[in-house]
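Would you be willing to look carefully at the protein I have copied below?

:::
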Amino acid sequence: MKFNVSFNFSNLALLASLALLSACAGTTPKTSHIEERAMAYWDTLFSGDLAGAYEFLSPGFRSSVSSMDYQRSILTKQVQWTSAEYRGSECSETTCSVQISLGYRVMGAVPGVKSFTGTQKIEESWIMIDGMWYLVP
């Protein structure tokens, strides 16, 4: 049996395009998980699991600040975070700038006022290392 197959440049280009599209179709961009990861960090903080929240921090930060020092810094703040809402992100392949709207309460900030509550938009820096997103404080 003999096959007569003739390819021209446009057929070859079409096949190459289809191969590239099929390779992309089954993958999820790594940046799609940044919202989950960022909110998991804040949920862990809100739950009081400071050792768990420490694990979300970049390996570089953790190499210079111990878990106990990190926990101490969180516990001694006058500000108590009350809520976090993901607002968006701008990401490249390995870095992400994440916008979070934080609710907070400050105890005894003003004489005669027991507490003050408010919200503030913050921007966090995240970095991908070995396929995992980490917060860079």
Notes: The beta strands are 79-91, 95-110, 113-129, 132-136. The CA atoms of residues 68 and 107 lie 24 Å apart.
